[in-house]
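User: Structure please.
Assistant: Input sequence and predicted structure:
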Amino acid sequence: MSHALELPEFFHKVMLFQDLDGQTLSTLRPLLITKKIKAGEIIFRELDESDALYIVEQGQVLVSKHVSGDVDIVLTRFYPGDFFGEMGLFDSAPRSATAHAEIDTILWRLDRNVFHHILSDHPEAGARICYRLVTVFIKRLRATNDQAREAIRWGLEATGYSPYGEPALFGRKST
């Protein structure tokens, strides 16, 4: 069976397209660009131009952020059915992180101009996609808030701050 024949089934498993029927998916399919990415290859770098969303069909993508010097922090990983880079659909600010394939990966790219075409020419499908984008934005924002809270707590403890006016003991009792 050819790759093209397997594609509609894959699309049905992508949360972004979960509310779309087969006819709508068939309309969207030719608007997306497939990309094969080798293990270790960069998909985009932090501060690159941001103009597309990517959907993982196969493989695994690691997203990281530069901290300083040679230090990067892993933010997350994306697996088949996940999508990333969605901020590029809405604004032209530079990429906020670097994405690279950890293993050989197949991606589907949705360009910003194509997304705007979907919104204007297929408003019902566009609204359904936007709804799914918003639900993922909310989930990711909540996770980011939790990470920020934890990082602040660790930073405060490392400096000896205690909300009770006593030196922080890092969870240890002093004798």
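The radius of gyration is 20 Å.
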